[in-house]
Amino acid sequence: MSVTKISQSFATQVTPDRMFKALILDSHNICPKLMFSSIKSIEFVQGSGEVGSIKQINFTEESPFKYVKHRIDALDKEKFMCKHTLIEGDALMDKLEYITYEVKFEGYGRGGCMCKMTSEYKAKEGVEIKEQDIEHGKDRAIGMYEVVEAYLLAHPHAYDFTQEFTCPIAPSRMYKALILESNQLIPKLLPKFIKSVEVIQGDGGAGSIEQVNFTEASHFKYVKHRLDELDKDNFVCKYTMIEGDALGDKLESIAYEVKFEAASDGGCICKMTSKYNTIGDFEIKEEEIKAGKDSAIGIYKVVEAYLLENPRVYA
């Protein structure tokens, strides 16, 4: 069984973290949206995106193929690297056992990245892979990457900023404290900066609007958050800052997604993704993003310390 190894790379003006998020972590959402004429859907038939998951790509009638299945073999979110294997589908053309891929996104130039892909074609016994077969595969991969690059350049705040930290508190307790009971707990723990948190529309469920009123010691007067989604079983919350002087004159809104995932030591991993929607051509400075991230982490750490000192609260 012969093996043909091919390497290819191209430079892009998009940062490696955004390319990695779009093409690897969120490909099942963005690729059918951008390439709707050839990709009908992408779904996980096993797992949910972690190592060992199997992802099926279903093509439209305009494509020469019906479907393929990829198995995720390695995923390094810090180094923006993924290894996956095409294990099933008519794209193997009755000639291949499988194709393995290793994809890396490395920093390059001023804020861009170098996308590198190594492919290994495992031919069936007695089959010789023709150069044109490999060229077709390379062209399709580069075409997909260029479509995603164009989208990210046109939408500079898509896949913006993600932060995470580990915490010794169980996800259920952090979720209750920071999401479900935040209007009661946060003013109590941060009285110097937060005067009150009140639900001004709704009952705390999806669609509700919550107003945070700050004290005179704060830089801001108030902000309003709209609760977009609340998943109490999976400890997920999506909400959007829709009003307030914290938005300044540069932002229309800031959308947040917060997740609390169980860790092996009984604690959790707190993850937050923020998408900044600017007004016109304004660009958000890195120091402004950092200030927001530091503020969020600060609140989380205060709540974590309180729950450690009071182990029965929200237990």
Automatic annotation (TrEMBL):
Annotated ranges, domain Bet v I/Major latex protein: 2-154, 161-309
Tagged with keyword Repressor: no
GO molecular function, one term: signaling receptor activity
Alphabetized InterPro entries for the sequence: Bet_v_I/MLP, Bet_v_I_allergen, Plant_def-hormone_signal, START-like_dom_sf
Keywords assigned: Pathogenesis-related protein, Plant defense
GO BP annotation list: abscisic acid-activated signaling pathway; defense response
Signal peptide: none
A single Gene Ontology CC term: nucleus
Keyword Translocase applies: no
Pfam families tied to this protein: Bet_v_1
Family: Belongs to the BetVI family.
Full protein name: Major allergen pru ar 1
Organism: Quercus suber
Lineage summary: Eukaryota, Viridiplantae, Streptophyta, Embryophyta, Tracheophyta
